[in-house]
Amino acid sequence: MKMLLSIVSLEEANIVVRYRPDILDIKNPSEGSLGAQFPWILKDISEAVKDTGILCSATLGDLPYKPGTAALAAFGAASCGVGYIKAGLFGVQTFEEAYQMMVSIVRSVRMVDSRALVVASGYADFNRFGGLPYTELVKAASQANADVVMLDTAIKDGKTLFDAMTYDEIKKFINLAKDQNLLVALAGSIKQEHLKTLVELNPDIIGIRGAVCEAGKRTNTLSSEKVEAFMNYLRISESKNHQEHRAILSHYW
Asked: For residues 138 and 145, what is the distance between their CA atoms, to the nearest angstrom?
């Protein structure tokens, strides 16, 4: 399970790179859940970490249904040297709209970099604003040949991924995505106490920010101490889970 850590600046990248998160997710929280950051910041960060083995991700924003606008944004972000391009399908309500958006985004990214992974990001709290259901998100991502499907939360009012969806719903989302050979990412005000459950669910990627910011507020600066503690707790949780699996297997074999 890879750790995607959201950052807003080169200064934050320099704070956290020593803790070896798998992905630095470059965004602008002041513009929303998946707020887009300026291209010069994307470029500076991706250049600064390119020799560390850590990949960068760029968010395109909480997008309206405007495939042309999304395509241009994707082309620009892919030109900045990032490994993941993440599109928030906020203003999308139907499968057809989601499909048209993702086809446009995938094609634009592939024009620039065939290795970059395209992420179709929907919202676990879609019912709160009339957004796209997660079942349609997976279908659109698969048919558009995206690489990753993700759930975050759009409304940042303290409610988490696990407030928006039940364990069984999240598991269904993961299974649907994996059946379509998509990688799965989960985010949405994830906290340290959620890690044991996330390890059980076993998505490919988890995304965090607020839990490792000063005062737990996502628009504040990252805390070096909180990043270190969260990373350590994640690795311990994964290790314990693997030990439990080995113990179960050894009982039968």
From this structure: 11
